[in-house]
Amino acid sequence: MGSIEGERTTVGWAARDPTGILSPYTFNLRNTGPDDVYIKVHYCGICHSDLHQIKNDLGMSNYPMVPGHEVVGEVIEVGSNVTKFKVGEVVGAGLIVGSCRNCRACKSDIEQYCGKKIWNYNDVYTDGKPTQGGFAETMIVDQNFVVKIPEGMSPEQVAPLLCAGVTVYSPLSHFGLRDSGLRGGILGLGGVGHMGVKIAKAMGHHVTVISSSEKKKKEAMEDLGADDYVVSSDETQMQKIADSLDYIIDTVPVGHPLEPYLSLLKIDGKLILMGVINTPLQFVSPMVMLGRKTITGSFIGSIKETEEMLEFWKEKGLSSMIEMVKMDYINKALERLEKNDVRYRFVVDVAGSKLDDHQ
What we know:
By secondary structure, the protein is of the alpha/beta class. It has helices spanning about 50-55, 105, 155-160, 165-175, 190-200, 215-225, 235-240, 260, 285-290, 305-315, 330-340; strands at about 10-15, 20-30, 35-45, 70-80, 90-95, 95-100, 120, 140, 145-150, 185, 205-210, 230, 245-250, 265-275, 295, 320-325, 345-350.
């Protein structure tokens, strides 16, 4: 096995300030230990939360910052205690790279809710070094936060599953919304929304996409297989599906009224919030009381759920809809993501990019 302790440098693309412009950056990886897996990054998805972080939307950004948390790569070395992974295997790493291991969340295998979780970038690791993400040649990740990619799955398609995919799978699984025949709504058809349609359909649900305009109707119905499409500003269409949905997965990442969507839920229906929104949301209490409805949230998923979701995805023969880009296109891709101009997830071919030069 051999030990991988010691200092290593790598090159990634980092934001230096809240303009969010990324450029090549050479940095030291954190100190390694016996539980660590040293990964050569092949692909990394681009997520809406990467935008929030590089632009300091949440007021907590530290620079230089290498984003990217949907990482698929190859194991190139392992620490002496690593038993789950071997050199040459294809593995994935997501948003969380550490937790306390002792709290209720950690002991219940939902380490994403640990109060001391460590983010894979824009955080500080236990050795005091800043964590950096997957827009880089290599990463070091504790084996407990690495998943094996099932054989036969194409690695570039797996990248978006490590955040967007498990973000949808986790609440459907946790809230008992897996039975076939349920009626679900997917609000917003971006990276998470497209995963929502695919996963809910694969579970046998009747899926209605709710969007702000007609423009994604053909894609939703024909490419993704949604059963119905409703424009949220069209009162007649909204009225038609009032009191009909078991759940709505709300992926909209900007402030929006909740009441129009609460009215679509059946008794005991759930509105599950997925978008990172830093302004207060509003609703009046009878909207919830008079149908015993729930407004809840869910945050990514655990390592265990990620493994389950990957098996589910493979078993159902699903595929992600991605647009592959090289690292020299990253700033343009982020600009397009901000305008929702991607169908439906960008994936960076990190291994196939020249990381250390401006092209």
